[in-house]
Amino acid sequence: MATYKIAVMGGDGTGPEVTVEAVKVMDAAAAKFGFKVDKTDFDFGGERYMRTGETLPDCGVEEFRQFDSILLGAIGHPDVAPGILEKGILLKARFELDQYINLRPVKLFPGVDCPLKGKTPEDIDYVVVRENTGDAYTGTGGFTLKGTPNEVAVQSSVYNRFQVDRALKYAFEYAQKHGKKARGVGKENTLGLVGKTNVLTFIYDLWERAFNEMGDAEYKDIRRDYYHVDATCMWMVKSPEWFDVLVTGNMFGDIITDLGAMTQGGMGIAAGGNINPEGVSMFEPIGGSAPKYTGKGVINPLAAVCAMAMMLDNLGEEKAAKKIEDVVKVVTGTKLKSLAAGQMGYSTSEVGDMVAQLVAD
Ligand code: IPM
Ligand code: MN
């Protein structure tokens, strides 16, 4: 029987409480689908930082390398200055473990209130493959004449061909395996590049050339589209049904996936994976730590449950992942009054119990 070693990092705010529910569902899935999970808790986060000054130490990264995957709750603490925990924990894990893909499904579940008029779950069902190591996130840049009226700040978008190629390869493969044709809901598998070739004439020129070269050489069966990022935002609201798999750089990917999350019903449901296809990946609900709800038992754990399902899928437990997603659909479609904190009609742990029970059935 397969045994997976999972590092569980609940993190800050409501992170730990939603993670507990995700683990509850994971245990139910393990029993049902015949695998084992060996969990280890880690307390990296704001509280530990305030106690010890430590974010994610190098030895923590080394420990993470021993695991099959990492399940993360949320990072972000109101008493810690912005940037410290994000850079020190989240981005450090992404960079050090070379989790070069940030996979973010944008999927409207049944029963979920969609802010886009007239759109149904059939219309909002696509995936953003966000490159996760480069762009403005490399921190290349600096100040000159800081604090003077002539101050200059520079922060560069940085990409090399290797980073672009490996992200594109993942995206093409993903489109081949999980695109609309592969899922039986469309005629073609389509990969859309999201860029800004009209202004970022270096960075997205590189992306576009690499995209077309790889498509012509290896993925002739996949239809290719190109969208400027601003137009993408427009179509994400107006015609999300056009999209299948999208691929883009780190910064645009960060922005458009928050827009995507809103169109799928908000932060209570959106999940993402920081994936190193050859290494240790990390899965997280993308909603943040929601500190004001901490400990109240009112926050929705479904995003964390969906992140955990993505983790199982990535580990090769596809049946378990599919079952969990189907159960989440039943829960949103027939049980919860709303996804919003305090308005679900159930507590956080009641939702976890309900999902775990339905997975076990
Ligand atoms: C995300 C977050 C992070 C990012 C922050 C917290 C550093 O917004 O996962 O999208 O910008 O990548
Ligand atoms: Mn973001």
Describe this structure in words.
- The mean pLDDT is 97.
- Helices cover 41% and strands 19% of the residues.
- Strand 1, helix 1 and strand 2 form a beta-alpha-beta unit.
- The two termini are 21 Å apart.
- With 361 residues, it is an alpha/beta fold.
- The chain has a domain at 1-100 and 278-361: 3-Layer(aba) Sandwich (Isopropylmalate Dehydrogenase).
- Residues 254, 258 line the site of manganese (II) ion.
Brief overview:
With 361 residues, the protein is of the alpha/beta class.
Query: CATH fold name of the domain at 1-100 and 278-361, please?
Result: Isopropylmalate Dehydrogenase
Going by helix content, strand content and strand pairing, the class is alpha/beta
Number of helices: 11
Query: How many strands in all?
Result: 12
Low-confidence stretches: none
CA-CA gap between termini: 21 Å
Strand content: 15-25%
Which cofactors or ions or other ligands sit in this model?
3-isopropylmalic acid, manganese (II) ion
- Lateral strand order in the biggest sheet: 2-1-3-12-11-4-5-10-8-9
Principal-axis shape: globular
Cα radius of gyration in angstroms:
20 Å
The CATH class name of the domain at 1-100 and 278-361 reads Alpha Beta
Write the layout of secondary structure elements.
Blueprint: E1 3-11, H1 15-33, E2 36-42, H2 46-52, H3 58-64, E3 69-74, H4 84-96, E4 101-107, E5 125-131, E6 141-144, E7 152-155, H5 161-178, E8 190-195, H6 203-218, E9 223-228, H7 229-238, E10 245-248, H8 250-263, E11 271-275, E12 281-285, H9 302-315, H10 318-334, H11 348-360
Parallel strand pairs: 1-2, 1-3, 3-12, 5-10, 8-9, 8-10
Antiparallel strand pairs: 4-5, 4-11, 6-7, 11-12
Bound molecules: 3-isopropylmalic acid and manganese (II) ion.
